[in-house]
Amino acid sequence: MTDTALSFDVLIVGAGHGGAQAAIALRQRGFEGTIALLGDEPELPYERPPLSKDYLAGEKPFERILIRPAAFWVERTITLLPGRTVVSVDPAAHVVTTDEGATIGYSSLIWATGGPPRRLTCAGHDLRGVHGVRTRADVDQMIAELPDVRHVIVIGGGYIGLEAAAVLTKLGKHVTVLEAAPRVLARVAGEALSHFYEAEHRAHGVDLRTGVTVVSIEGQDGAATGVRLADGSVVAGSMVVVGIGIVPAVAPLIEAGAAGGNGVTVDAFCRTSLPDVLAIGDCAAHPNPYADGATIRLESVQNANDQATVVARVLTGDPQPYDAVPWFWSNQYDLKLQTVGLSTGFDTAVLRGDVATRRFSVVYLKGGKVIALDCVNMTRDYVQGRALVVASAVIDPALLADADVPIKEMLAAD
Predict the structure, then answer these.
(1) Can you tell me the distance from the alpha carbon of 189 to that of 191, in angstroms, rounded to the nearest whole number?
(2) Can you give the pLDDT at residue 414?
């Protein structure tokens, strides 16, 4: 099916945070051309972080996690194209083809697809009861199954896995967390924070195991019954939640000749190597000034929104390079973790406050300079610490460790 009449000045592929915010930012900046927002789900654009928290817990209905109500998109003449997937891109003709065989033309293409959850490849990975956590449909299926589930196994000790474990524990389920690394959050935090969260989950009754290898998902009559580990033991559970990262959904761009690998490569203005094709969000591998200029992907709402602003500026004639300070958050139990900066490659970690009080911060330094902070129930440190990261401040570690001295005073003294 070819509809040559379907063409837009800006076609946005991906209707998550990045794609939706790009459309919004374009209109805010006075862009008057036609805009279409194409997504692979039937839903209106919605927030994903609450899926593993408030939405799974039943504390926030779907209507409250919509990025904007339906009328908003109509009022701003932003065409929504839900339930479609782009399978190929022709950069010379400025056309994409969808899974339905339809072609859609564009003057500028913004790729904001994020990526599906990384799936297990072991035997039993496709049994009923094995779930990823990316879409409303994923979580709705979990919610539907939960009344008949007593034991849940979470594979992966990153933020998604730990957040799901906290909610499922609160819902009265017996939860086992299996992490292959020696500690949870190993890729994003220092040992102090990892061990704190391990202790918290265990205190809430979670059977948390690190340094374990999953061999297969065991099943009966097509449904999961447990997880077999490398030591031969089987952890029983009729629901398995897999939280081991995402796979950037960039194959159509790479096949069309775009530079990339783990994501699609973009420059400081979020431009790919293809003409008139930009990319933002989880799938965009970009040079990051807070990672010593290394090309990285950031999986966060903040990054998606900030890069959406970058592309909106590019397309409205006011280009400004991406230069946003990375920040993240995670809610588990009554703990609010707020992170600013990137701790990757740190050589010193300074504990600020007392872990036993459940209110503390970890300040990360590299070459004597502050590069990141993890703040647990310490919003003041998080807010004030941003300035230390921006300034690459050099502060005496002994002073950083003194929780009685506000961080803003340290920067003034520096």
Answers:
(1) 7
(2) 55
Query: Burial of 97 by CB count in 10 Å (0-12 exposed, 13-18 middle, 19+ buried)?
Result: middle
Half-sphere exposure at residue 189, Cβ-oriented, CA atoms within 13 angstroms: 29
SS3 142: helix
206: CB partners within 8 A, 6+ apart: 165, 169, 175, 176, 177
Number of H helices, E strands in the chain: 11, 24
Is residue 385 within 8 A of residue 368, CB to CB? The reply is no
Matching residue, tokens 């090309």: 295
Q: How many Cα atoms occupy the beta-carbon half-sphere of 132 within 13 Å?
A: 15
| Residue 145 amino acid letter | E
Q: What is the chain's mean pLDDT, rounded?
A: 95
Contact 306, 17 (CB under 8 A): no
> Residue 208: which residues within 8 A CB-CB, separation 6 or more?
157, 165, 176, 177, 179, 184, 198, 201, 202
- Return phi, psi of residue 353, to 5°: 100, -175
Residue 236: what are its φ and ψ, rounded to 5°?
-80, 140
Average pLDDT (229-257) is: 96
- Three-state DSSP string of 102-114: CEEEEEEEEECCC
One-letter identity of residue 298: L
Residue with tokens 């005496």: 396
84, 98 Cβ separation under 8 angstroms: yes
What pLDDT was estimated at residue 299? 92
Q: How far apart are CA 128 and CA 354, in angstroms?
A: 44
Six token digits for residue 233: 């033991």
- Amino acid, single-letter form, for residue 99: D
d(CA 365, CA 65): 36
pLDDT reading at 1 higher than 50: no
* Element at 304 (helix H, strand E): helix 301-315
Looking at residue 3, its pLDDT comes to 45
Round to whole Å and give the CA distance between 276 and 5.
Answer: 20
User: Looking at residues 237-253, what average pLDDT do you find?
Assistant: 96
Q: What is the pLDDT of residue 183?
A: 96
Q: Is 93 helix (H, G, I), strand (E, B) or coil?
A: coil
